[in-house]
Specification:
five-stranded mixed beta sheet, mainly beta, 633 residues, elongated, 38 strands, 7% helix
């Protein structure tokens, strides 16, 4: 038997074991003190195994295992064996394992009860869970096993452990209500029994665990010995004001009376005004910005912050995008029906003006983060948001976990599912994914960062193509680089496209090249002596080139600070706020320094230029180069 190891330690195959209570609400038990046996399977494909939301083909897959079968199994070669800890975590080690399909067996000795008390089963129960294909994660593999509710709840009943769980929402908007108090009671012919109370999490989910004796107390006989509780609810806001008060007769209604050991409910509360809680299904899937700065076009006539030629920020700026700008918008984690949502971005080398019809899907041939290495490199790590929860109110303690999407979170086709990203970060942190439901999701607005450096960009202008004062030859000048982008989103279960899918930016100008800057003292340059003392009237030779040049200037100052002047070279310098695409190269081989220096000293000359490159979050800073020379009359 393997030693129980913390989730943060390395394992060949690691994961968690759960018993489902309310799959659609994400409520399940973590199962501790269970033995796990995994045997390399002879099957050619995994079985339809139950997940946290899907029952799978549980009736044909799950079965009990006899003692003899288990003895033969555990005595065999190549068996990965382990035991779950109190978090339901298991660690199976076998240095020879290489990702093969696994037949999985579990033996249960106990069931978690109220207050995390472990309640022993009268007899150890061993189950065959099915054939699984582990998912590779880092240097090992990961699996989650779910015992379906109809089996798990029967086991809970054997130890008299009962749970009622549910979701509380606003009746008008169906927005979840977090931080409200839910009180559950049982009504019987003798008295009303308090089953328990709980506070909802950010998704409006609550859970109340109670022993069977909680609904049987009251007389010298167990009036509900052979049935379950008849449950009705009260919901109070955080200030203790009742917002929903069901009558005891609600517990006698169909669906509430004789509730089993796993009862799942949905409650709605009429709020006095319009709801202000944001639910996961409220936002449409929408790509709306490049970075925080630029709204993408809404239509061929409403171009927002882009012009027809792909420049951003309006006619006064004409910015070009650089680096890895974030594509921003909103994608709900799940559909209204509870299915996960996924999305991706595709890049096209074909472009069209932004004021014409959107490019057809066939023009977008590269998937960000998928396919060949060059396309995988289009993806840059993206901070998607944070998960947040209140640990306690007195004292007020919170916990926040940042959720960053990395390349391995994307599917083979580049689809990103925020739910999987959150789960992956929890696993890497050694946290139980079952606790995700306790956290509220706070999205950053960044959906995916696209690294424009991975486009087929051209190299910087070679340093040796021009000396100071010479123009950059036309053959060495850089082309205007362009790209197009397409956003796609779909139901991750049905694969059906969702509203907002197909949003296209026909044209975006990009550039990742540094500015070509050269400057020298003319007298030293002519003498090929950068150390000579300069006499008389000094002159400067300079060259500035960039295809998206915005400004340029030359400053000369003495080391003493007494001389500090900006050089004028009409009509070239100073250049300020340029958006003319023909003004890309400035040069002068013989600029007279005015005013003339009068005091012998060392003089420092700085050539500075600004391009119109923008990351989507801010403009790229100025670039400069400097020289120094000693002057005396």
């Amino acid at each position: 038997m393997s030693q129980v190891i913390a989730p943060s330690q390395r394992c060949t195959v690691a994961g968690f074991l759960y018993g489902i209570i309310c799959g659609d609400l994400g409520v399940y038990d973590v199962i501790g003190d269970a033995e796990i046996y995994a045997v390399r399977s002879k099957q050619k494909s995994p079985t339809a195994n139950p997940t946290e939301n899907e029952r799978g083909d549980a009736k044909t897959v799950l079965r009990t295992v006899s003692d003899d079968e288990l003895k033969r199994l555990s005595a065999g070669k190549g068996v990965l064996a382990g035991k779950t800890d109190k978090r339901g975590f298991f660690c199976l080690n076998d240095p020879n394992y290489g990702g093969e399909l696994l037949d999985v067996y579990v033996c249960l000795r106990s069931v978690p009860g109220p207050k995390e008390k472990s309640l022993p089963l009268e007899k150890t129960t061993c189950l065959f869970l099915g054939t699984y294909e582990p998912r590779q994660s880092g240097s090992g593999w990961y699996l989650s096993f779910y015992i379906p509710a109809y089996i798990w709840c029967a086991l809970k009943k054997l130890v008299d452990a009962w749970t009622v769980a549910g979701r509380v929402a606003d009746c008008d908007t169906d927005n979840p209500l977090g931080g409200v108090i839910v009180i559950a009671r049982d009504v019987d012919c003798t008295q009303e029994d308090l089953l328990g109370e709980a506070v909802t999490n950010g998704l409006g989910i609550f859970r109340i665990d109670y022993p069977g004796e909680a609904f049987r107390r009251g007389t010298f006989i167990d009036v509900e010995l052979f049935g379950g509780p008849d449950i009705y609810f009260q919901v109070n806001d955080s200030g203790g004001v009742p917002r929903l008060t069901e009558p005891p007769s609600a517990g006698r209604q169909v669906g509430r009376c004789d509730s089993g050991p796993c009862k799942c409910v949905r409650l709605c509360v009429d709020l006095p005004g319009p709801g202000d809680n944001t639910g996961p299904g409220d936002l449409p899937s929408a790509w709306i910005r490049v970075g925080t700065a630029f709204l993408i076009p809404d239509s061929t006539v409403a171009l927002n912050d882009f012009d027809a030629n792909g420049f951003a920020g309006g006619a006064a700026n004409k910015f070009v995008l650089t680096g890895a700008p974030a594509m921003r918008g909103g994608v709900p984690r799940k559909t209204a029906g509870g299915d996960p949502i996924e999305y991706r971005f595709k890049v096209g080398q074909s472009t069209a003006a932004n004021n014409v019809a959107p490019l057809a899907a066939a023009n977008f041939t590269r998937i960000v983060g998928a396919g060949p290495l060059a396309d995988k490199n289009l993806f840059a790590n993206t901070s998607l948001g944070d998960v947040f929860r209140i640990v306690s109110f007195s004292p007020f303690v919170t916990e926040t976990i940042g959720i960053v999407a990395v390349l391995t979170d994307l599917s083979a086709d580049g689809w990103l599912d925020v739910n999987k990203v959150i789960q992956n970060r929890f696993i890497e942190l050694g946290r139980d994914p079952a606790t995700i439901a306790l956290f509220s999701w706070i999205p950053s607005g960044d959906m995916m960062r696209v690294d424009t450096n991975a486009l087929p960009t051209v190299a910087n202008v070679p340093s040796g193509v021009a000396i100071p004062g010479q123009p950059v030859p036309p053959a060495n000048r850089l082309p205007v680089e362009k790209m197009s982008l397409r956003f796609e989103t779909r139901n991750a279960t049905t694969l059906a496209a969702l509203p907002g899918s197909g949003k296209t930016l026909n044209l975006m100008v990009v550039n990742n090249n540094s500015t070509f800057l050269k400057i020298a003292n003319k007298e030293q340059l002519d003498a090929s002596d950068p150390c000579m003392i300069v006499h008389g009237v000094p002159h400067l030779a300079y060259t500035v080139y960039h295809p998206h040049l915005q400004s340029a200037s030359i400053n000369m100052r003495s080391n003493s600070g007494a001389y500090n002047n900006d050089m004028n070279d009409p009509p070239r310098l100073p250049l300020i706020g340029n958006t003319d695409p023909t003004v890309v190269n400035l040069n002068n081989p013989n600029l007279e320094v005015l005013p003339h220096p009068t005091v012998k000293c060392t003089y420092i000359v700085t050539l500075k230029a600004h391009t119109r490159r923008h990351t989507g979050g801010g403009q790229v800073g100025a670039e400069d180069t400097l020289i120094a020379f000693y002057w005396e009359p």
